[in-house]
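Milestone M4 deliverable, item 7.
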Amino acid sequence: MNELSLPQRVARAVGSSPVSEKLATAQELLYGPIPAWARRSPFHTGVLGHSAHPPLTDVTIGCWTAASILDLAGGTQARSGATLLVGAGLVASGPTSLAGAGDWAEMTGAERRIGAVHGLGTDVAIFLFLGSLVARLRGRHGLGAGLGLAGNAVLAGAGFLGGHLALNRGTARRTTDADLRLPGPN
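Output delivered:
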């Protein structure tokens, strides 16, 4: 018998949850035309053969992870670098979020519900990092570091769901398997 792992069961539960469906409906109302606009924007392209969202997340997550590493290991001399990285991650979160919204606009069913929970998690993380930046700029570096760590923790959960969508469910794909086959002798 092939039992699902705990992470797979979590993703399945999120995808079948009526609460996730209500969240997706609420997000459609809250965000209005933004996902449809993002779907037609340069942030939602097939030129890569896959969504632009996953590689953009690397920039955002990289900045925020590096900021937390500096907070934990860099001492007081690393505070300005950590602050800069939090701000850079916030700037990068704009196009990253738009690319994700464009992807989400095409999703239905379980993928739509999982995407809604993923989106809520990333929104919460963005607001935690915004609070982190404000605290840091006001000289409250300890609070800023704490909010950054909380943002990274939330982002890890949201990122798990996003990775599940892209890798397990194939929502980031823009080409078919036939498009990817190399030409060669038959």
